[in-house]
């Protein structure tokens, strides 16, 4: 998104990077920072991005979910709204899906005012965003959340196994539900 120059038309939530969130909280709103954002958990998703960022807003990360699990508390840890090349980026300290607009709203971002809204969420985002989106483009990133199930090593799985094997078939229970593997 940064390479594409989407700037003020775009926002992203959220990158989990407790170091950068702490750095933003220590510097305070209105500060400009040099950060190394993301890419610190594993080697699958690239290296941290070295960025100059403006700290636009800060939040303690205590939210109440409004769509999926409505009313449930969600604690994302210290959060920061960084502006990089005009684009708003939400940084959180604890891992979670972006279930709804609350991480954006907590930091003063109204997603309805942006042309491009990007989320880090595999599927759970739909309850809070599907009706707002003109189009949804999904990304299949490396790691345990991939939709490419064939990449996972299976040592004890009986074959055939759906959805990996087209010939997999399962008997139905009297109520029409699959109950197990055919011999």
List keywords for this structure.
single chain; 183 residues; alpha/beta; 2 domains; two-stranded antiparallel ribbon; 3 helices; 10% helix
Overall SS class:
alpha/beta
Kindly estimate the percentage of residues that lie in beta strands according to DSSP: 25-35%
**What's the number of domains?**
2
Indicate the percent of residues in helices. Answer: 10-25%
Question: In terms of per-residue confidence, which ranges show pLDDT below 50 for 5 or more consecutive residues?
Answer: none
Q: What's the pLDDT, averaged over the residues?
A: 88
Distance between the terminal alpha carbons, to the nearest Å?
A: 49 Å
- Tell me about the biggest sheet? 6 strands, mixed
Question: Order of helices and strands, N to C?
Answer: EHEEEEEEHEH
Work out the helix count.
3
Q: Which geometry do the CA atoms define? A: globular
Q: What's the total number of strands?
A: 8
- Which radius of gyration do the C-alpha atoms yield? 20 Å
Strand order of the largest sheet: 2-3-6-7-1-8
């Amino acid at each position: 998104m940064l390479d594409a120059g989407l700037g003020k038309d775009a926002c992203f939530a959220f990158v989990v990077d407790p170091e950068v969130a702490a750095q933003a909280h220590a510097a305070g709103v209105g500060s400009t920072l040099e950060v190394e954002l993301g890419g610190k958990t594993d080697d699958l998703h690239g290296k941290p991005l070295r960025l100059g960022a403006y700290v636009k807003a800060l939040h303690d990360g205590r939210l109440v979910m409004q769509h999926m699990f409505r009313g449930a508390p969600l604690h994302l840890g210290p959060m920061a709204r960084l502006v990089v090349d005009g684009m708003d980026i939400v940084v959180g300290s604890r891992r979670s899906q972006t279930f709804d607009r609350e991480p954006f709203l907590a930091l003063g971002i109204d997603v309805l005012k942006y042309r491009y809204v990007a989320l880090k969420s595999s599927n759970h985002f739909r309850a809070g965003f599907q009706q707002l989106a003109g189009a949804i483009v999904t990304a299949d990133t490396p790691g345990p959340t991939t939709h490419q199930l064939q990449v996972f090593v299976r040592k004890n799985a009986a074959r055939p196994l759906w959805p990996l094997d087209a010939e997999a078939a399962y008997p139905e229970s009297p109520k029409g539900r699959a109950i197990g593997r055919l011999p």
